[in-house]
Write a structure and sequence with these properties.
nine-stranded mixed beta sheet; 19 strands; binds magnesium ion; 695 residues; Creatine Kinase, Chain A, domain 2; Four Helix Bundle (Hemerythrin (Met), subunit A); alpha+beta; 48% helix; binds adenosine-5'-diphosphate
C-alpha cells in the first residue's frame, strides 16, 4: 500500500467525509451530538442518512446493516438493500428513520430469560459516536440493541452509559479542584490482541479446532516455547505477508493498527492499535478480530482467537490499556513531574485503587470464560487473584502518604547505555511487571487478565462504573470542605490506607503470593462458576442500579447468559471429545496394535531367534491404555449427561467444572499418551509439531 495517509479511513464515514458532504448546520448538529452527547434531531438524521447512502453507493454498496453486539459476545448484522420501488424500477433510498432505528427479530439472541420469545421485538439504535463504515458491499452502522420494553440486550449500551457516568462524576470532582474548563471526560482504551496462525489444511483435519476453537487432544511437541526464541523473533515471510494485508485492511477501516510482533508461543502473534475512546476501541477490536480471521483465509491460514488453543504452550490474552482524558486534552492518570504535589492525579489514582479493591470480584467476573479459565493462574497470565501494581516510584509515594512521611520524586532518570554512538534517553518511571493483573504503566492502567476472544465492552463498562462510583463518593466528601486541597489530602491518605492490601508489586505467579493474598483477604476465584457466584452480590447490584447501567433483572439475565454459555461450551467440548475418541482415536489405536501383533506373530513364526519384545510391549501398553480410554469415554458421557440435566444455571456450571471438565482432563491424558506411542501414519490428527511449526 502506498500513500497510507490517503487510504487510511477511506472506508469510513468519518469527520472528513461528513465535513465534505453535510450542510454546515447538519454537520455542526451532528458534531455536537458526538462530542457533547446532545440528543439528535430527526431532521438532522434524514440529511445524514441521505449523505451516508450516496457515499456508500459510490463505494459500491447496495445494502446497509445495523451492526450490534448482542450478548453472544460477537457482532450481529442483518442487511437491507437501499432499493425503493419507483415506477417500473427502483431508486436507492435511505431515511433518517432507517438510520436511527432498526428492528431485528430479537428472539434468537440470548436474553437470559428477560423476554419470552413471543414478545421478541427488539430495536437497534444508531450510535453516532462510532463512525459508520463500508465493508463487503454494505454500509455498516454501529448500533445499540434493546428489547421492545427497553431492556438492554447488548454490550454497547452499558458501555456508553458508563462512559457518561464517569464523565459526569469526574467533571464534578475536577470542578471542586478548580478546573472549570473541563466539560467532558472520556475513557480511552488501547487493546493489545494476541492470536495464533495455523495452516488451514491442517486446521481442516482437526474437528476439535473447528467445533470448539481449541485442541481437545494433542501430545506435546518435542519443542515448545522453552528456548524463548519466538517472542519478538524474526517474522516468517508467510506471516509477514498476512500481517501486511491485515494492516492495510484495518487502516482502510480507520483502525489505528500500530504494533505487530511474534509472541511467546510458537505460531503466536500480537497486534496493538493506538488507543482511542472506549466505545470506538471496542467496535474496532470487534472488527479487528473479524478481519484477522478473514484475511487469514486469503493466505490459506486460520487465525485462532481462543484463549487456549494448545496445551503446554501459552494461550492468548488481551491487554486492556485504560485511562481517562479530558476534553481539554489532559490525561487524568498522568502523574506529571511531581506526583507528590499533584492532588488531582492522586485523587484519581486513589479512586482507581479503591475501585479495584472493592470490586475485585467484578473485575474477575468480567474476564471469566470457559477459555480464559485455562490461562488465569497457570503462570502464563495473571492469577485469578486481582491486585494492582504501581511500580517502585509510585509505590514509595503511596507509602509515604500512608505513613505521613515526606517524599520527593526522582523524576525521569536518564539511561546511560555506556556506548558513545548510542544516544542516552529518559527512562520510564516504572519498570514493567508482566505478572500483575492490573498494572500502572506510566500514565494508564493495563488490565492484563482479559481473554483473547473477549468483547472488551464488558471489562470497560464495569471498570468505568466502579471508578464513577468512587468519584461520586469523593465528591460527596469534598463538596462541603472549607479547604478542598487539605480535605483532598486527607481523603487520599485515608483511601490509600484503607485499600493498600490491593497493591502488590511482587511476582504474581509465585505460590507465596497466593498465600499472602489469602492473608490479605483478597479473593481467589479460580473458575467461572466461582467468580459468577459473586455477580449478584448486593454491592454489585447496587453499583449498577445506582448508576443506571443495568437494572437488577438485566444483571440477573447477564449472569445467567454467561453461566449458560460456559455450560454449553463445556458440553460441546465433552461431546466433541467423545466423538473424536470413539470414531477416530480408538479405531486408529486398534489398527496400530493389530499391526504390532501381526509383526510379533510373523517374527515368531519365522524364527524363535528373532525378538518380538518391542512389538509385544507396545501392543500390551497400548492395549492397557485403550481399555482405560474406552472406560473413560463412557464415564465422560455419563457425567455430561448428568450435568446437562441440572436445572439451576450456577449449579449446572459447577457440575460442568467439577465433574465434566475433570473427566475431560483424564480422558485427554490417556489419549495423549497413546498418541505418543502410536505411529504418526496411524494417528488420525495432525500433531502439535505440525500445527505449531507448520507455517
Ligand atoms: P506492551 O508493552 O504492554 O506490549 P504496547 O506498547 O504494545 O504495550 O501497547 C500499549 C497500548 O497502550 C497501546 O495500544 C497504546 O495505544 C495504549 N495506550 C497508550 N496510552 C494510552 C492511554 N492514555 N489510554 C489508553 N491506552 C493507551
Ligand atoms: Mg501489554
Amino acid at each position: 500500500m502506498t500513500n497510507v495517509p490517503e487510504k487510511f479511513g477511506s472506508k469510513v464515514f468519518n469527520d472528513k467525509v461528513m465535513r465534505e458532504r453535510l450542510p454546515v448546520t447538519t454537520y455542526k448538529a451532528l458534531k455536537s451530538t458526538i462530542e457533547n452527547g446532545e440528543p439528535l434531531d430527526s431532521g438532522v438524521a434524514n440529511v445524514v442518512a441521505n449523505a451516508m447512502k450516496d457515499w456508500a453507493v459510490e463505494q459500491g454498496c447496495t445494502h446497509y446493516t445495523h451492526w450490534f453486539q448482542p450478548m453472544t459476545g460477537i457482532t450481529a448484522e442483518k442487511h437491507d438493500s437501499f432499493i425503493q420501488p419507483c415506477g417500473d424500477g427502483v431508486i436507492m433510498e435511505f431515511s433518517g428513520k432507517e438510520l436511527i432505528k432498526g428492528e431485528p427479530d430479537a428472539s434468537s439472541f440470548p436474553s437470559g430469560g428477560i423476554r419470552a420469545t413471543f414478545e421478541a421485538r427488539g430495536y437497534t439504535t444508531w450510535d453516532p459516536t462510532s463512525p459508520a463504515f463500508v465493508k463487503d458491499g454494505s454500509l455498516y452502522i454501529p448500533t445499540a440493541f434493546c428489547s421492545y420494553t427497553g431492556e438492554v440486550l447488548d454490550k454497547k449500551t452499558p458501555l456508553l452509559r458508563s462512559m457518561e457516568r464517569l464523565s459526569a462524576e469526574a467533571v464534578k470532582v475536577l470542578r471542586l479542584l478548580g478546573k472549570t474548563d473541563v466539560t467532558r471526560v472520556a475513557t480511552t482504551v488501547g487493546p493489545e490482541q494476541e492470536y495464533f496462525l495455523i495452516d488451514k489444511d491442517l486446521y481442516e483435519q482437526r474437528v476439535d479446532l473447528k467445533l470448539t476453537g481449541r485442541t481437545l487432544f494433542g501430545a506435546k511437541a518435542p519443542k515448545g516455547q522453552e528456548l524463548e526464541d519466538h517472542y519478538f523473533g524474526a517474522i516468517k515471510p508467510r506471516v509477514a505477508a498476512y500481517m501486511k494485508d491485515l494492516d492495510e485492511a484495518l487502516w482502510e477501516l480507520g483502525i489505528f493498527a500500530k504494533t505487530k510482533h511474534n509472541e511467546v508461543a510458537p505460531s503466536q502473534h500480537e497486534l496493538a492499535p493506538i488507543f482511542t475512546t472506549s466505545n470506538i476501541a471496542t467496535d474496532h477490536n470487534e472488527l479487528t478480530m473479524e478481519i484477522m480471521q478473514k484475511v487469514a483465509e486469503r493466505h490459506n491460514l486460520v487465525c485462532l482467537l481462543h484463549e487456549k488453543p494448545f496445551k503446554g504452550v501459552n494461550g492468548s490474552g488481551k491487554h486492556n490499556n485504560w485511562s481517562i482524558s479530558t476534553n481539554t486534552g489532559e490525561n487524568l492518570l498522568s502523574p506529571g513531574k511531581h506526583p507528590e504535589n499533584n492532588v488531582q492525579f492522586l485523587l484519581f489514582l486513589a479512586a482507581v485503587v479503591k475501585a479495584v479493591d472493592e470490586y475485585q470480584d467484578l473485575l474477575r467476573i468480567t474476564v471469566a470464560s470457559a477459555g480464559n479459565d485455562h490461562r488465569l493462574g497457570a503462570n502464563e497470565a495473571p492469577p485469578a487473584i486481582i491486585s494492582m501494581y504501581l511500580g517502585d516510584d509510585l509505590d514509595a509515594l503511596v507509602h509515604s502518604i500512608i505513613n505521613g512521611e515526606s517524599y520527593e520524586s526522582h523524576g525521569k532518570e536518564r539511561m546511560h547505555t555506556g556506548v558513545d554512538v548510542l544516544a542516552d534517553f529518559k527512562k520510564d518511571n516504572s519498570d514493567r511487571n508482566r505478572t500483575s493483573p492490573f498494572a500502572f504503566t506510566g500514565n494508564k492502567f493495563e488490565f492484563r487478565a482479559l481473554g483473547s476472544s473477549l468483547n472488551i465492552a464488558c471489562p470497560n463498562y464495569m471498570l468505568n462504573t466502579m471508578v464513577a462510583e468512587e468519584l461520586s463518593q469523593f465528591y460527596d466528601t469534598l463538596t462541603d470542605a472549607d479547604n478542598v486541597e487539605t480535605a483532598a489530602g486527607e481523603l487520599i491518605r485515608d483511601v490509600l490506607t484503607a485499600h493498600q492490601r490491593i497493591i502488590f508489586n511482587g511476582d504474581n505467579y509465585s505460590d507465596e503470593w497466593v498465600a499472602e493474598a489469602e492473608r490479605r483477604g483478597l479473593l481467589n476465584l479460580k473458575s467461572l462458576p466461582e467468580a459468577l457466584s459473586h455477580f449478584l452480590d448486593q454491592k454489585n447490584v447496587d453499583l449498577f442500579v445506582k448508576h443506571n447501567i443495568c437494572t437488577e433483572a438485566e444483571l440477573r439475565a447477564r449472569c445467567e447468559i454467561d453461566l449458560e454459555a460456559y455450560s454449553k461450551q463445556l458440553n460441546i467440548e465433552a461431546l466433541t471429545m467423545i466423538d473424536m475418541a470413539q470414531k477416530d482415536i480408538l479405531p486408529a489405536v486398534s489398527a496400530f496394535i493389530r499391526e504390532q501383533v501381526d509383526a510379533a506373530l510373523a517374527k515368531k513364526a519365522l524364527s524363535a531367534a528373532i525378538s518380538s519384545e518391542t512389538e509385544e510391549k507396545l501392543a500390551a501398553s497400548l492395549s492397557e491404555k485403550q481399555a482405560r480410554f474406552a472406560k473413560l469415554i463412557g464415564e465422560l458421557a455419563e457425567e455430561a449427561e448428568k450435568a446437562s440435566a441440572v436445572k439451576d444455571p450456577l449449579e449446572q456450571a459447577f457440575a460442568y467444572r467439577n465433574l465434566v471438565f475433570s473427566k475431560m482432563e483424564e480422558l485427554r491424558a490417556v489419549g495423549d499418551s497413546m498418541e505418543a506411542e502410536t505411529a504418526a501414519d496411524y494417528w488420525p490428527y495432525p500433531s502439535y509439531t505440525d500445527l505449531l511449526f507448520g507455517v
